[in-house]
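User: For my dataset I need records formatted as: sequence, then structure tokens, nothing else. Please produce one.
Assistant:
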Amino acid sequence: MPTARTEVAAAGLDGKIYVIGGYQKGAGLVEEYDPEKNSWSRRAHLPKALHHVGAAAVHGKIYVIGGFISGVGPVDTVYEYDPGADRWILKAPMPTPRGALAVCVVAGKIFAFGGLGSGNKDTNANEEYDPAQDRWMKRAPMPTPRDHLALGVVNGKLYAIGGRVNGHHDRNLTDNEAYDPASNHWSTLPPLPTARSGSAAAALDGKIFIFGGENARATLNNVESYDQGKNHWQRWLPMPTARHGLGAVTFGHSIYTLAGGPKPDATFSSTNEVFTP
């Protein structure tokens, strides 16, 4: 990557990967990666310098949701990015201000789970955003409030995995909770083998892959996947570079893992590694 960063969000759209925001260094930056050409380009900055945001792509646009502003705390902002125009537009705010949340898309709707809210307290908020209507709706809350969690989608169901309690990376979780938007119902599934937070998730071949993360002592290189059909976890070859606060995006039959801190707390990297199961 052109810029070393951590606590980023990443989203894939139309054959490109966008890495957004960052803690301290790179806050507000947006860089676009072309996997076919193996090249990077700089795009329009976020309207505000944000970190610990959520990002998702739908209907040809990228939506950046929530996050933190240094010295201010959690925000409720939603920004829509048009890659063709290289332009940002402010949209309807999220009902619950929060950062270190997780977002994913199902059936053209964006779901925002958990995060660290006001007073450094976790929220179990589950809020759905309809980009076509620019409107938010509250859904069934997540059973376990947490922040710095990972989130992936397989066959129309969302899987909220791992995370930490009230921002403390010495209180990491292994919780694996699935949400069905059609029934607005949660279920508890086999736990993540390695308790961690600040991980990245990406779905491929019916599995949710969890990359990296940290605890109070170290940054992790663990790669584990949850198989929806078999309802069990599998370990994979570790990442070459242990990182937390990274992004992960599926492209073809591989997953790109981008940026992230190589040591606990505020460290930065420009690492771009691709994993092919």
